[in-house]
Specification:
By secondary structure, this protein is an alpha/beta fold. The chain is built from eleven helices and eight strands. Among the domains are: 80 residues, Conserved hypothetical protein from pyrococcus furiosus pfu- 392566-001, ParB domain (Alpha-Beta Complex), CATH 3.90.1530; 114 residues, Arc Repressor Mutant, subunit A (Orthogonal Bundle).
Length: 286
């Protein structure tokens, strides 16, 4: 016969064992609790990252954050959502070198929207003992989960591809462990399984030549990357410039700035000349 079960107020289940009847007593029952193993409890706790409320004034953007923040209607919609519902998905941070401050790894847009909405705190998951490479990997991976790769600017695609490429060269399991943790934090599968340059290209529907070109572009100084994003220079030109040393790239940037200044002066001068000729032109009489 199956043993009867009983529940206590905490929801634990206990097997009920019947004592043998004695002449002096009626039916009596003893309850023996089923205790969970300590290892089972630890594994459950480990899967749920601790969330802590952090004041927005203690949050610092990721150094040289490679992704542009939301603008226009998209940012306005996020502000309204945060104002109405708060920050639902916790941001990810790591301790900053400045005492009591934290560096944002994931959640720059949410924090910016919260500031605009007048919110003072954000729920955060604190990651400790990260290398700069690991921190950058989290920054790029979480951004790719939230955005379409096709919508990224050239410089953003370059940093994303370069970060994944560098992660592949790390010790075995390094990248997989980080990806698993990111999935646990965001609740979204990352969907990347890349081990070679060809697989990176297949993941993003890019040829290996294009992947190689983006890896080169990532070596440009920020000013030249911005020119590429603004279509002031082409991809092939950007790739060629990436082979220059940083000091030489800075010289090129200086020349481009000077050229822009000269062109601006010429355009301004031509506009003034045209304006003066219209003013000095004799009026027609009818």
């Amino acid at each position: 016969m199956a043993k009867k079960l009983s529940n206590n107020e905490n929801g634990n289940v206990f097997p009920v064992q019947r004592k043998k009847k004695s002449a002096a007593s009626s039916d009596e029952f003893t309850i023996k609790p089923i205790r969970k193993k300590k290892s089972d409890i630890s594994s459950i706790e480990a899967k749920a990252p601790a969330v802590k409320a952090i004041k927005l004034e203690d949050l610092i953007p990721f150094d040289k954050h490679p992704f542009k923040l939301y603008e226009g209607q998209r940012f306005t919609d996020m502000i309204e959502s945060v104002r109405a519902n708060g920050i639902i998905l916790p941001i990810v941070v790591r301790p900053h070198t400045e005492e009591g401050k934290y560096e944002i790894l994931s959640g720059h847009n949410r924090v910016a929207a919260a500031r605009e909405a007048g919110i003072e705190e954000a729920p955060a998951i604190i990651r400790k003992n990260l290398t700069d490479e690991e921190a950058l990997f989290i920054v790029t991976e979480t951004n790719l989960i939230q955005r379409s790769f096709a919508d990224l600017k050239h410089s953003e695609k370059a940093i994303a591809l370069a970060t994944h490429y560098e992660a592949m060269k790390m010790k075995p399991g390094y990248r997989s462990d980080l990806l698993k943790e990111i999935e646990d934090i965001t609740g979204t599968p990352s969907g990347h399984g890349m081990r070679t340059r060809d697989k990176i290209g297949a993941q993003y529907s890019l040829g290996k030549t294009t992947v190689a070109r983006y890896l080169r572009v990532n070596k440009l100084i920020p000013e030249l990357k911005e020119r590429l994003d603004n279509s002031e220079i082409g991809m092939r030109v950007a790739e060629a410039l990436s082979f220059l040393r940083e000091k030489e790239q800075t010289i090129v940037e200086g020349l481009l700035m000077r050229r822009r200044s000269v062109l601006s002066k010429r355009i301004f001068s031509k506009k003034n000349q045209k304006k003066e000729s219209l003013i000095n032109q004799p009026s027609k009489r009818y």
